[in-house]
UniProtKB/TrEMBL annotation:
Keyword set, alphabetical order: ATP-binding, Ligase, Magnesium, Metal-binding, Nucleotide-binding
The keyword Membrane belongs to this UniProt entry's keyword annotation: no
Pfam families (alphabetical): 5-FTHF_cyc-lig
Protein name as catalogued: 5-formyltetrahydrofolate cyclo-ligase
Catalytic EC class: ligase
UniProt-listed Enzyme Commission number(s): 6.3.3.2
Reactions catalysed, as given in the entry: (6S)-5-formyl-5,6,7,8-tetrahydrofolate + ATP = (6R)-5,10-methenyltetrahydrofolate + ADP + phosphate
Cofactors demanded by this protein: Mg(2+)
Binding site for ATP: K3, K4, D5, I6, R7, R131, I132, G133, F134, G135, G136, G137, Y138, Y139
Length: 182
């Protein structure tokens, strides 16, 4: 199975998770995250504004603000680079070509060293933290010289052994995966 095939298969499976179970999974993941040392020690978090069928990040972002943490969200360029910009409740957003909400004003990207916890999205993961994302390699390029902590948030069906044989030289593993309990 190719990366694109497993990506499509898992996205289909994610869309089929019943709403009530998805809600339970999200709460479980949030509870694990908020209790973790990675979260407690973080002052500045890099995170995407999730879209269905991803793990919901809205409550995570609100919790970060309530705890006085800085939050930055990604902006992707046409040359496949990723930059993170501060995100506040009044930040104006626009829809990107990928269907993601990104900041409209891009004045001062945050230096990588300013973000001490990066929550990396993905479609499929293996137990070692390798991931298949949404395609394009944006995060793998960003992560190659990122020194902060990295985590991902996932539902149980997103862990697949098939990822093991699809790992490529440029792939960068995530430090820890917070996985909803089955």
């Amino acid at each position: 199975m190719l990366k694109k095939d497993i990506r499509l298969q898992v996205l289909k499976e994610l869309r089929e998770i019943p709403h009530a179970i998805r809600k339970e999974y999200n709460i479980d993941i949030q509870n694990q995250l908020f209790a973790s040392q990675e979260w407690k020690q973080a002052k500045h978090i890099g995170i995407t504004l999730s879209r269905y069928p991803e793990v919901d990040t809205e409550a995570i972002i609100k919790q970060a603000w309530e705890e006085g943490k800085s939050v930055s969200i990604p902006y992707s360029t046409t040359d496949r680079k990723l930059y993170f910009y501060l995100y506040k409740p009044d930040t104006k957003l626009e829809l990107s070509k990928f269907g993601l909400l990104e900041p409209t004003v891009k004045t001062h990207p945050q230096p990588k060293e300013a973000i001490d916890l990066l929550i990396v999205p993905g479609v499929v993961f293996n137990q070692s933290g390798y991931r298949i994302g949404f395609g394009g390699g944006y995060y793998d390029r960003y992560l190659k010289d990122y020194n902060g902590k990295t985590i991902s948030l996932a539902y149980p069906l997103q862990i697949k052994n098939e990822v093991d044989r699809l790992i490529e030289g440029h792939d960068v593993p995530i430090g820890k995966i917070f996985l909803a309990a089955k």
